[in-house]
## 1
Amino acid sequence: LINATREFMRADDEEEMPLLDAFLAHAALEAGENQGDQWQDCVQLMTLHSAKGLEFPIVFMVGMEEGLFPGQKSSDDPLRLAEERRLCYVGMTRARKTLYLLYTESRYLYGQEMHPRPSRFLSELPIERVHQVRSQQNMAAAGLTALASRTQSADDTGFRTGQQVMHQKFGQGVIIDTEGNGSHARVHVNFKQAGSKWLVLAYAKLETL
């Protein structure tokens, strides 16, 4: 912001405008679709809010991690979570041809190394529409292995990620995560019709397909 104000020069047709108004008008024009010419090979960086109404051949959405998107304060607030989900949809539909959804398995943030979980919004996508690409094959799975159609040995829950299951109420789905053991064991299932749900195995009565 400081560099932008230093380099700002008021145009001839803005002489009558207050200096602050002229700067804000210039900043607005330099944002979004006006950053690059139509056929210029460039990357335009913007927030999801500023991308509304725009379209691009290729879109990269970065930071698709729990705590970032959705934010930490939204995780336990249904209204805020729903708003962030709508914002995620806005970002995804900006892409005409190709959409990249990026998350990291390790992030250095606020002086600490963190290992975030992939955003829950990723697990709500149709698996058949997603192709996962990993930078290193020997890196630990980060909870989204179902999108890569990976198979794992069954853990203490008796189920594995990527396994097809059937629920009496929610129908057919795919296990995308498991948690706990014994009577407290849970599975995270992405159902074709009902969406993503955590189920306690002691009551879910899931059938394997």
## 2
Amino acid sequence: MKVMKWSVIAVAVAAGTSQMALASSQSESEGFVEGSSLTIFNRNMYMNRDFRDNGNGGTATQNGQSYREEWGHGFIGTFESGFTQGTIGVGVDAIGLLGVKLDSGRGRAGNGLFPVDADGRARDDYSEAGAAVKFRVSDTVLKYGTQFVALPVFSTDDARLLPETARGGLITSSEIDGLELNLGRFTALSGKSQTGHDSEGLEEINLIGGTYAFTDNLSTSLYYSDVKDAFEKIYGNANYNMALADDQSLAFDFNIYKTDYDAEFTGTGQDEDNTIWSLATTYSLGAHSFTAAYQKSHGGFNTNGYVYGIDGGGTVWLGNSVQYSDFFYEDEQSWQVRYDLDMAAYGVSGLSFMTRYIEGSNINMGAGNADAEETEWDIEAKYVFQEGPAKDLSLRVRQAFYQATNGLDNDLSDTRLIIEYPLSIL
């Protein structure tokens, strides 16, 4: 299977050599200053998790922390220079992050919005800054330093107040029409609620891969990564969209990870492996979208199926990775049904609703228990202002209800209120 997928990419490269753009991005460079931009992305987030009677981390006889509540405001500043003119363009990007606590306290912290001190209190504020130098030749860019990354085998998480940041180098090449290739090496990952240079314990990750769009409707991806002293991953994706009528369409999205874990990482004294895949189908009819998804995990260790985090908290590009659970345990199989509504068709542009239900079963919890189950029901509403002084301001409410049995024992509700506003300075 790996050989076939690599062959597909090779054929795509060969076929695309005649599709080279007449003018490259670098030849059209505006200049270091002229092409610069500065934005401050504001995120105000309230989050609580109620773990019911059996608190998170508790047992049947001893409860853990049953309630977590945090509220804060995050400032995500990004400066991106243009590239100098000439054959080799040079530029600089910079990131500045600041998180400010608005409310939380001892015994209520721990949702991942803020660092937590030894006394159990969330810090009043935390910050981080970094920069990266970048070079561009034609349509190929090398970027080295602190940066955000969004690749299926290495993806910085942005699901809390402030995003993760990675440190290393990444080459992105788009020399062939429809084909993007990536080659990278990173040696540090800072967590979304941490300020340390490498708070997630990443020593080194090397990655290679790319995406090719055969047509406007069909695209494929293939990536490989190697996390030192941890695991190797292969990721594949196929996405196809088919128009059925003027206001109808059908889309298919297939994702698969094959992970080989090192013995020193598993703690079992031997190498282990996991394969997890998902297939989602979405039927769209005007303002309505209906999705059905199936996901299956094969293998793992110590109830772990698909493992991620040391390679980025967003490295889980799977159909049933939702608000709280990823439905990725050892040998787990899960189903999802989802409904989306875009109110623009009814004269209310910017307003949307979503609800979904996911059920997972056949989870191997060890010790003869191979039938643990989990369910999650999510509800979400979002409104984005379309015009006026508040243009692009978004208001979002997310609610999740989660239940689990037979060894997982972690019932909870997860509520998030999110206000976001991008402010363009340059």
